[in-house]
Amino acid sequence: MKTMNPDPQxxxxxxxxxxxxPTGFLHIGSVRxxxxxxxxxxxxxxxxxxxxxxxxxxxxxxxxxxxxKKGLRWLGILYDEGPDxxxxxxxxxxxxxxxxxxxxxxxxxxxxxxYYCFCTEEDLEAKKQEMVARGHAPIYDGxxxxxxxxxxxxRIANGEKAVIRFKTQNKVIGFTDLIWxxxxxxxxxxxxxxxxxxxxxxxxxFAAAVDDYLMQITHIIRxxxxxxxxxxxxxxxxxxxxxxxxxAHLPLxxxxxxxxxxxxxxxEPVEYYKQKGxxxxxxxNFIAFLGWNPGTExxxxxxxxxxxxxxxxxxxxxxSIFNIAKLDWxxxxxxxxxxxxxxxxxxxxxxxxxxxxxxxxxxxxxxxxTGKLIDFATLSLIVSLYQERLVKLEDIIDAxxxxxxxxxxYEKELLLFKDMTYQQVSASIDKCIELLxxxxxxxxxxxxxxxxTAIESMNLTNRGYMLWPLRVALTGKxxxxxxxxxxxxxxxxxxxxxxxxxxxxxE
Length: 507
Ligand code: GLU
Prior knowledge:
Elements: E1 15-18, H1 28-43, E2 47-50, H2 62-75, H3 98-111, E3 114-117, H4 121-133, H5 149-157, E4 163-166, E5 172-177, E6 181-186, E7 194-198, E8 201-202, H6 204-214, E9 219-223, H7 229-240, E10 246-250, E11 253-254, H8 270-276, H9 280-288, H10 303-309, E12 320-321, H11 324-337, H12 340-353, E13 357-361, E14 364-367, E15 373-375, H13 376-386, H14 395-400, H15 422-438, H16 444-457, H17 464-475, H18 483-506
Parallel strand pairs: 1-2, 9-10, 11-12
Antiparallel strand pairs: 3-4, 4-7, 5-6, 7-8, 13-14, 14-15
Helix pairs in contact: 1-10, 6-7, 9-11, 12-13, 15-17, 15-18, 16-18, 17-18
The protein binds glutamic acid.
Glutamic acid (GLU) binds at residues 19-21, 53, 204, 208, 222, 226.
């Protein structure tokens, strides 16, 4: 093996990379890796790179790459270099770098650090069985390591199939992980591993080792599941005379049942959270805490705060539990912090998707069920009634659909308050109709004083006897904002129509 270059990354600008394989939608585990790379690069004033590892030709799909890029944009995790940006270290898609891998594969073959292996799947399986039977770890036995490069090339020219194996030495490789501390691997236990199917078909460890060097990546931050790939990549780097970057392996993210969170398990794609109405700030803040914490009680961190505060010293190596209730808590916090106008803008698409509203202009909308117009200010007023209680943006539909229909749908039992009979409910509603018909204003404070004064003079033991049937008749819901706030928005005609409808239900 060649001797290593001096370690220039110590004096170099920090460069990190997120290197997803576009074989599935962007999911929470990948976002966590990506976020930590981004936070560290930005904290150090360095560069963050997106590299698409698409060498799995069958499983890689352009739509997954698009989904990854779209998800990162939405989360505000912006890369300095990537497949769709300029950058002097490109191309940033591995399938566009095959000439580069070919050159280095040939170098390894010529140096004798790699060799062609002609063993068939069946040979390998038989050898594996035999080794296991003899109580050995099933590693490659080196059968083809003695074949000269010249002979191997002749056999390949004659149509024989071969893969390229890296020649592993019998030694221990150690490195100091920024999260795990000193880690040692006895690499003889790996055997000679396959690094490419041919010189233009590299596998992950080889392509990543080459790209990390050529893209001048200084810090490799990735999931714990890659820990044992690190010594493999370090061996390849050493053989090619590359320096070793620093490594930080992030702890597993566990599902609520403490088993590993994975694409196939509890982790939903980012798009799912977006559609449900989780805010990107909430998701980033929540994800940052999956493996990192500030060491204080503080929980709310904007992206600039996270950049400021991030450090590997505050990353832990034990698994982090993905707790959706915590994400909900963050989301509610961020929804409450969102200015009302902005929140209304974020919610309008939900009304549109649920066929409740049609956009006429930026400030005016049509309520599809009634054909009536509603302006942005009224929409904001509706939103303001629920801003405190919303957990996810999509919850606005169930909470406020009553404003976008003509008559609500509900069972008449809902109108009953405590021990009331239907007759008493009917009488209460008659009284409400009378009061609302004579109301001089529909402004909520006026309505409240006006109703409460009237109720007082009725000597009821509980004002719920009036207010519950009123609220249910207006909303058709078990829970909602108060009746006067709702009546103000519905207006006189629709409020009276709904009270008369309640009378009909009671008949
Ligand atoms: N393409 C690899 C993955 O998606 C990258 C791992 C790494 O960061 O080195 O798991």
